[in-house]
Specification:
The protein is α/β, with parallel strands linked by helices. Helices cover 35% and strands 21% of the residues. Strands 6-7-5-8-9-10-11-12-13 form a 9-stranded mixed sheet, sandwiched between helices. Strands 14-15-19-16-17-18 form a 6-stranded mixed sheet. A 4-stranded parallel sheet has the order 1-2-3-4. Helix 5 links the parallel strand 6 and strand 7. Helix 1 packs across helix 3, helix 3 runs parallel beside helix 5 and helix 4 packs across helix 12. The mean pLDDT is 94.
């Protein structure tokens, strides 16, 4: 079956699903395979639940007599090709966002800014991979005026695959840093992969939003049409801005050219989030959002999913930034935490995963930073920190269960605590005991 024929079948459907638990009348089910599952096993169940069609790649389970079954060579490839075809049919203006840190927050801020004025589609949650991006694109409807597509990567070629599906008109790379080095091989590998977004724009036309203050991005974006933002005092910026205070929530000001300053009090923790806010404002202004609406949208945004959230438990104040961690984001979080005024401060930090052969040296650099900032109440969780912090006075824990046992024996009270580590460490499980 050609992609055109498959698209014709899709036009009869109310939507698509890849989850056999979320099948229903009028949907098209895509039977995907994973390391621990095979969606082909659930094709008949999906059809019994009312799905109009089921796209599958297991010939042994295919029944040619059942016109609702659609056999393809590879179900994931079919899903991706269908999404790319759908994107071309609608022609919606798409903003593609990637980066080592801040891409989800920037996506959410940009969504808030554009939603103040337009009917938009935006990546939901963290559906930013080879399955999530085509599902997002297939959610495009004629009434959507713009779409924001977040793209994640952990291996070379990942972004190239995703831009070929989403075909963005504008691109934004928030930053490039040391993350997923086990997959990328090196920092240069990170830059090359993230830069695949720029490569698409360079080949197909369009423009990129770039932080003037990021030397890596400036070099990577050479030859492209740039729409820039950054710190005040630089010529040619569409938006300039600076931090006013960060205690604990960020307040900043921004303006266009020589225009009036806008002061914005956010619900975000971390001075590094000002760059994310400036990016969102820059995108909004370029696409016709008024300055007042852009400011109000950023001010009204509430962070979620353990991304720089402030939680008051009644016993302690928690700065929870435990969705993920890499050397760049960990150092930024520690730097920011050092600026927060609080009588009793403490840090509970977990290992940074997927750093490969440089993992130990990167953890040692974080330990050195903690010492340089004068932190004394530090609990480190995981085997990498255990090795990196040998000889220090920091408390070392094998895992989060050990932390919780300690908290049950000696509860903490009256502290402002930074909680940060890779999601797989599970530091959020400590919150109920804090």
């Amino acid at each position: 079956m050609t992609v055109e024929e498959l698209y014709s079948r899709l036009s009869e459907c109310a939507g698509v699903t890849t989850d056999s638990r979320k099948c229903g009348p009028g949907l098209m089910f895509f039977a995907l395979k994973g390391e621990r599952f095979d969606g082909n096993e659930f094709v008949r169940g999906a059809l019994e639940q009312g799905c109009s069609y089921a796209v599958m790649d297991d010939a042994a389970r295919y029944d040619a007599a059942d016109g609702r079954m659609i056999l393809v060579d590879n179900t994931l490839t079919a899903l991706q090709q269908l999404a790319a075809y759908h994107r071309r049919q609608l022609g919606t203006t798409i903003i593609g966002i990637t980066g080592t840190n801040g891409k989800t927050t920037t996506k959410e801020l940009t969504s808030a800014v554009l939603r103040s004025t337009y009917n938009i589609l935006c990546t939901q949650g963290n559906l930013n991979n080879s399955i999530g991006v085509p599902l997002t694109v297939l959610g495009l409807k004629p009434e959507h005026e713009y779409a924001i597509v977040e793209m994640g990567a952990s291996h070379p070629g990942d972004i190239k695959e995703l831009v070929e599906i989403s075909q963005p008109d504008y691109g934004l790379i928030t930053n490039v840093g040391k993350a997923h080095l086990l997959g990328f091989g090196s920092f240069e590998g990170v830059k090359k992969t993230k830069g695949e977004l720029y490569d698409w724009i360079r080949e197909h036309g369009g423009a990129v939003f770039v932080n003037r203050d990021n030397e890596h991005l400036q070099q990577m974006a050479s030859g492209l049409k740039l729409i820039e933002y950054g710190k005040p005092g630089q010529d040619g910026l569409l938006v300039e801005g600076e931090v006013l205070e960060c205690n604990p929530f960020v307040k900043f000001r921004w303006r266009t050219g020589v225009g009036e300053w806008h002061t914005v009090q956010t619900n975000l923790i971390g001075a590094y989030n000002v760059d994310n806010a400036l990016a969102a404002i820059t995108i909004g202004l370029k696409l016709g959002v008024t300055e007042d609406k852009a400011s109000a949208a950023v001010a009204g945004y509430q962070p979620q999913n353990n991304r720089s959230q402030l939680t008051d438990t009644g016993r302690n104040r928690l700065v929870v930034d435990a969705y993920n961690a890499n050397p760049t984001s960990m150092a930024a979080a520690i730097e920011n935490f050092s600026m927060i005024e609080a009588p009793e401060k403490m840090l509970i930090l977990g290992d940074m995963r997927e750093l490969g052969e440089v993992s130990l040296s990167e953890h040692r650099q974080i330990v050195q930073l903690l010492n340089a900032k004068g932190f004394t109440r530090v609990w480190l969780v995981g085997s990498e920190f255990a090795e990196a912090a040998k000889g220090t006075d920091f408390r070392l824990f094998a895992d989060v269960d050990a932390v919780n046992k300690e908290l049950e024996i000696e509860p903490l009270s009256g502290f402002t605590i930074l909680i940060k580590g890779s999601n797989s460490i599970g530091l959020t499980k400590t919150i109920t005991n804090l």
